[in-house]
Amino acid sequence: MILPIGPIHPGLKEPLRLKLQLEGEKVIKAEIDYGYVHRGIEKIMEGKTWQKSIYLAERICGICSYEHTQTFAETIEKISGVQAPPRAQYLRVITNELDRIQSHLLANSTFFKTLDHEVLFIHVLDMREYIMDAIELLTGNRVNMGWNVVGGVRMDADESHFKPILEKLDVVEERFPRVRELFAEGPAVALRNKNVGLMTKKEAILGRAVGPIGRASGIKKDYRHDHPTYQDYFDFKTIVRNEGDNYARTLTKFDEIPESISLIRQAIENMPKGDIRTPVNVKSGYAKWQGEAPRGEVAYHIETNGNLIKHISIRTPSIANIDSCAKFMLKDVASVSDAVSTYASADPCIACAERVSITDETGKTVNKDFFEVR
After folding, report:
1. Taking the mean position of all CA atoms in its chain, how far away is CA 266?
2. 3-state secondary structure string, 201-265?
């Protein structure tokens, strides 16, 4: 039988329809229908100045909103042949890692909700509030921060910002081990997650899984290691697991949190003095740039006509991770309830996946994420 889940379902954060082909309770095959929050945001950007387009970029994804503005700005900076000042680069690292922490905590809390583990759900959401407060303290906003501009960041920060941020990180660090232990050592939780939603490394490569989802299946790739700022000034390790199940995906996100806290502490401790913004005269040209959002690789292809965006194509991590979930993770899941939690373990974002659709040579509609500009 075919069982539709969604587009409105308590286990789904955003509208999407899962079509599960069942044999009894076992999932034999899964398909995903998009189209419920389609916005065509890249088309809207074309012909607009970067000052307007960067606000649109921030609204591609509500949870990974920060990394979109940073990657957008760095792509324009690459076209124009400029680099943000060192102080701005360090401030970007702080904000990026705060955003990563809150995103991982939200993803795992949503996952625990699908398991009906309300204790973990509430504990993790409560920890996240300390990080959201830190983000608001630094940027003035909790979600759409308006922090990045081409050439640097919009505002400076000083000890009056850094000290309370570090205090909030202290609280999270103190509470984090107990929450992680509740998940990692809980026998009931382990029964619902170990060997459930399996995706091998080969399958993850075929599905082009990225971020913590790919790393939980053994793919050792983190685009922060390719970023000049992280490469030259910061030390952190990539969290990789090989189990490829719901348990591994959740622990991968958990175990990246201490690394992000360490990066924030490094940035605050070694914060350089100087300007926070370099004047930029945006040139006509084309560039591609990649960043590591909380969910994985974000790639921007931008072609400019002076100060205007002539063409833009954005590849977000969710489309690859959701596709991998449908093809591999959901296949052979033993029950429908585990199918919902498996879907949640992939940390899907539907808004960032639904932007521009085009047709291939057969006339079939396909997502633009799978194509490059040139």
Report:
1. 22
2. HHHHHHCCCCHHHHHCCCCCCCHHHHCHHHHHHCCCCCCCCCCCCHHHHHHHHHHHHHHHHHHHH
Where are the strands (E) in 222-295, listed by range? 285-293
Nearest to 13 by CA among 67, 62, 55: 62
Question: What are the angstrom distances between the C-alpha of 224 and each of 156, 209, 212, 266, 290?
Answer: 23, 16, 13, 15, 9
CA-to-CA distance for 117 and 128, rounded, in angstroms?
A: 17
What is the rounded radius of gyration, in angstroms, for the C-alpha atoms of the chain? Answer: 20
In Å, how far are 139, 148, 226 from 69, measured between CA atoms? 13, 6, 18
| DSSP code for 23 | E
Query: How many CB atoms lie under 10 A from the CB of residue 146?
Result: 15
- Residue 339 has which token pair? 């199918």
Compute the distance between CA of residue 111 and CA of residue 357 in angstroms, rounded to an integer. 29
CA distance 217 to 213: 7
Per-position pLDDT tens, the chain of length 374 = 888 887 887 667 788 888 999 998 899 999 888 888 877 889 899 999 999 999 999 999 888 889 999 999 999 999 999 999 999 999 999 999 999 999 999 999 999 998 989 999 999 999 999 999 999 999 999 988 999 999 999 999 999 999 999 999 999 999 999 999 999 998 888 888 999 999 999 999 999 999 999 999 999 999 999 999 999 999 999 999 999 999 999 999 999 999 999 999 999 999 999 999 999 999 999 999 999 999 999 999 999 998 999 999 999 999 899 999 999 999 988 888 899 999 999 999 888 888 654 444 454 444 444 333 32
Tokens at 347, concatenated: 């940390």
The rounded distance, in Å, linking the Cα atoms of 201 and 187 is 26
Q: Is the peptide bond before 7 cis (omega within 30 degrees of 0)?
A: yes
CB 313 within 8 A of CB 372: yes
CA distance 67 to 369: 17
Chain mean position to CA 223 = 12
pTM of this prediction exceeds 0.85: yes
- Which two three-digit tokens encode residue 264? 């924030």
Q: How many residues does the chain have?
A: 374
Chain centroid offset of residue 292 CA:
8
Q: What's the CA gap between 18 and 369, in Å, rounded?
A: 20
Q: Are 151 and 278 in contact (CB under 8 A)?
A: yes
